[in-house]
């Protein structure tokens, strides 16, 4: 039986403000609050809320038959908390239906998996914690930023304990293979791979409202007919896209939500089910490994990482940022950590791309790739100075880690001693209370005993002394 795995990504760009060279060292706040508030409220109104309401309606109408998965970046959740909390509340309502799964991903929606395993793992674990706090579920399946994947990354993810990972069903990787099977990581068979069906996903997210497209207009029954026509042994159809495709890339006026609402019944009529990623990973066996020695993603025709690291400007910014990755992780300063998350976001590097793209790229405040590069490097210069100001730059990472570990151990030891002192003080207070209680009881009993003795003495009759009477001697 065929099953559809429908997944949506939710990530919100944190816009950087115009930051000039002379701001370095004087201004440590890097964000355009007005633009962040405006953009996230616009996307929430035009896309997120209508789309989530439609998905909720699909679940309520079809019961447990319809299922869907989401992933949210940590920085995206922070922006939603600040500017559009109603989106998170709606996701919690969807979670309560039992038909939704939330996936793990890097907290920053960044590129740490390409260069620093420790930072990548730290980000994923922090995002998992945030997901569990909101939805009460610990993710078991991971999707990397923009579905970035390689054999080495897959091995890292498997070692973190995840059972599955989402990635792109790129032609140059699959060759003659179909994306409609479950595969596994070439370096670690424990990790199952779900590969995106590029055509079916892009039919909805990119081409749905394009009147010049050969498949226009696309109807739900025709869409499901395509899936039903796949060979019987091709059981898993993975349809992955950004949630903003419903309302932004494809405007609501195109009837995109009406199309989505019709999918469950059309699928049911053809014996096609819906499953979450973890359900597929648990129920369906892998048919073999997929070898991905070079990194792939779901972006652009090349399906690689050239959109972020394709030119010298991008690589210079990337290398400079991650040159302090270990230092940031070791220092663990709250304000530095927050800026680190926002500066890692992959869109900061994509704004610098010089590649032509089939998908329109909005560079925001930047007039050119070089403008984006210059602004980012100014901010990065100030950020790195702040990182180095925390501890002397001549102290290398190993020394710093050893020093901070020693401090941490001493803090933990002091904390344990403080707890022991509190415990002993409580014990002493308890003993003193018990002692005072015993003394009070003893003091109360003593007068009572004395009074009782005195009372008893009064009640007892006094004994009179008696003299022996002389006896008469018998006369002869």
UniProtKB/TrEMBL annotation:
Keywords for the protein's UniProt record, in alphabetical order: Carbohydrate metabolism
Feature: compositional bias, Basic residues: 447-465
Pfam families: Glyco_hydro_57 (PF03065)
Molecular-function annotations in GO: catalytic activity
Gene3D superfamilies the record matches: 3.20.110.20
Biological processes annotated in GO: carbohydrate metabolic process
Glycoside hydrolase family 57 N-terminal domain sequence ranges: 6-293
Record region (Disordered): 433-476
Domain of life assignment: Bacteria
Comp. bias (Basic and acidic residues): 433-444, 466-476
InterPro entries (UniProt xref): GH57_Enzymes, Glyco_hydro/deAcase_b/a-brl, Glyco_hydro_57_N
Family indicated by similarity: Belongs to the glycosyl hydrolase 57 family.
Protein name: Alpha-amylase
